[in-house]
């Protein structure tokens, strides 16, 4: 029986959640925990993945953009794939800690499954989303609504997907999120939907279970 444990963490500081993921990866590799899905929001932060450089993110500080209280948004280099992006309150972040050896040990397939989870989540709110050739993530037309950046250690995944629900889209200004123009990014709120992060999280949980085919899901 394939079992998924979901942990709802609320609003979390980015560096601490990376440390939590690394510990959970260790536990999953040792067989101490089942596949685990972390659902949360981040305090405002710009993260720079292995495919980017922190000069992109630093332009945000140089341009005088902040987090709404006059202080600069912190910039953190991280171990995930992809380039620089913004996280903040109102954005649903999903971090799957999965043993890919039970999912065909295929990273490319895993990325497509994450995109399918994002698309199915949005479908439940009446939005038609999907892939854009040549790009990762979840798209509505030529606008990007969810970013994906993952890492794998011993075939166990961490990092994951960030879906824009009602976050402050000004957080994407002043740099090139995922190597794109800031106006490429869009949120559910900008598309006319008044939904909360917990509502979207509940839909994503069910979509995740369906796409990956878990027999049982428990929520903490």
Structural write-up:
With 220 residues, the chain is of the alpha/beta class. The chain has a single domain (3-219), classed as 2-Layer Sandwich (BirA Bifunctional Protein, domain 2). 26% of the residues lie in helices and 31% in strands. The strands form 2 sheets. An 8-stranded mixed β-sheet has the order 7-8-9-10-6-2-1-11. Strands 4-3-5 form a 3-stranded mixed β-sheet, with helices on one face. A hairpin with a 2-residue loop joins strand 9 and strand 10 (156-164). Helix 3 packs across helix 4 (197-212). The radius of gyration is 16 Å and the shape is globular. The two termini are 19 Å apart.
CA-to-CA gap between the ends?
19 Å
What is the subunit organization of this protein?
Answer: single chain
Indicate the CATH topology. BirA Bifunctional Protein, domain 2
CATH superfamily: Bira Bifunctional Protein, Domain 2
What is the string of helix and strand elements?
Answer: EHEEHEEEHEEEEHE
Low-confidence runs: 61-70
Major sheet: arrangement of strands: 7-8-9-10-6-2-1-11
Could you give a short description of this structure?
The chain is α/β, with parallel strands linked by helices and 220 residues long. Helix content is 26%, strand content 31%. A hairpin with a 2-residue loop joins strand 7 (130-132) and strand 8 (135-140).
List keywords for this structure.
single chain; 220 residues; alpha/beta; BirA Bifunctional Protein, domain 2; eight-stranded mixed beta sheet; 4 helices
